[in-house]
Amino acid sequence: MTSLKSDFLQILTERDFIHQATDLEGLDAKMAALEKEGPTSAYIGFDCTGTSLHVGSLVQIMMLRWLQKCGHKPIVLLGGGTTRIGDPSGKDESRKLLTDTDINRNMDGIRSIFDQFLTFGDGQNDAMMVNNAEWLDKLEYIEFLREIGTHFTINRMMTFDSVKLRLDREQPLTFLEFNYMILQAYDFMELGKRYYCALQMGGSDQWGNIVNGMELGRRAAGLSLFGLTTPLITTADGKKMGKTADGAVWLNEDSLPAYDYWQFWRNTQDADVGKFLRLFTELPMDEVRRLEALEGSEINDAKIILADEATKMCRGEKAAAKANATARETFVQGGAGADLPTVVIASGVFDGGIPVVDLFVEAGLGSSKGEVRRLIKGGGAKINDVKVEGPEQMVDESAFGEGQVKLSAGKKRHALVKLG
To answer: Pick from 146, 131, 129: which is nearest to 84 by CA?
Structure first.
């Protein structure tokens, strides 16, 4: 690759963010001319399918953060309009259609996440947040088909992965979803016309949609646009980033407490430490290389630093410090950290005792009774650091020293149950 001149693309390359790019040299030249021509505006779109994003979106969020730190202007595009359809990319079946009330509620939750990562305002490289309903809600169908539809062929659209995947698996693809790629392309063109946005970034599954938008902008509006995608981030065992046995790792506090978020990073596999330090922290690369070279038990020091840095960025410095202290108290000192996930149960429930299997499910340490029974059989279930004898064991109020009991599922998952 030709030596890059812009700080932004140098950083993305060094930290392994880039999978594909259109005219990388042209984009580099544009971004390197920051002092002469001003900042380059770039966007990433986020549909509002839930009240929070999860760590699967964190690579894209970090790209926007680096963009701003390098003097350029990030645009967060919220899909108030496109969420009504649902992106078929990477999906085997149609998404559930959401009401406007659902979408607006989800949008509020997602907005709060970006306040942690970006600086918003009216400055030259301050971030801006835009809702694509601003223009999509005003489209008139026939006029849209005449002006935009003529730039797309069914032949070409049938070659995109989002379509091929569904058809190859003989899963239905609705006409509504088929329109999604056209609307996303239209978004890119509108952002280029309205806000001089020159770059769209996204995951590798968005490559076809991004190229569509570039071509539409060039043909219909004479715009010079660029695209850049990130690789699919998987863990060392081949699993998709952000998916755990307990579900998605959410970015906002209402969906996942800071302690659990910190613990997710602390439990990173040894082989992933270097990759995650590159992508999800802003530590200097010399420090990243030092930490990823640690071996044996010392790699745990690198994992704690990863957890501290990632949590600090997403939840704030106080939350990261508190999560660290809770983990230290729980794991190192053998106590029951006050910030552990906590469930409050009415004391009357324990009259005569409660089955230990039910208690673990209630505390969120098992998704089903069968899972807890398997945990107990494997010797991984403990109450106040004492191994559970069997699935038939009962727990009564005598186990609640100081009004609480500590439950453990293996060495890394813990919860407190308190009497209400």
So the answer is: 131
Amino acid making up residue 137: D
Strand partners, 415: 407
b/e string for 348-377 if b means 16 or more Cβ within 10 A? eebeeebebbebbbbbebbeeeebbbebbe
Residue among 34, 25, 33, 30 at smallest CA distance from 4:
25
Q: Which helix (H) or strand (E) holds 227?
A: strand 226-230
What is the model's pTM?
0.77
Structure tokens at 162: 């989002």
| Cβ partners under 8 Å of residue 162, min gap 6 | 87, 88, 89, 90, 91, 180, 181, 205, 208, 209
Query: How many angstroms separate the CA atoms of 318 and 324, rounded?
Result: 10
How far apart (Å, rounded) are the C-alpha atoms in residues 79 and 49? 9
What type of residue sits at position 107?
A: M
Return the axis-axis angle of helices 299-315 and 100-117, rounded to nearest 10°. 120
Q: Structure tokens of 270?
A: 């040894």
For 316, left (φ over 0), alpha (ψ -120 to 50), or beta?
Answer: left
Q: What is d(CA 138, CA 15) in angstroms, rounded to the nearest whole number?
A: 41
The per-residue pLDDT string of the chain (420 residues; one tens digit each, 9 = 90 and over) reads 458 999 999 999 999 999 999 999 999 999 999 989 999 999 999 988 888 999 999 999 999 999 999 999 999 999 888 887 765 554 445 556 788 888 889 988 899 999 999 999 999 999 999 999 999 889 887 788 778 887 877 777 777 776 777 677 777 677 767 777 888 999 999 999 999 999 999 999 899 889 999 999 999 999 999 999 999 998 888 888 876 655 689 999 988 889 889 989 998 999 999 999 999 999 999 999 999 999 988 999 999 999 999 999 999 999 999 989 887 776 555 455 556 677 777 766 667 778 888 888 888 888 888 888 998 988 888 887 788 888 888 888 777 766 677 888 887 778 878 776
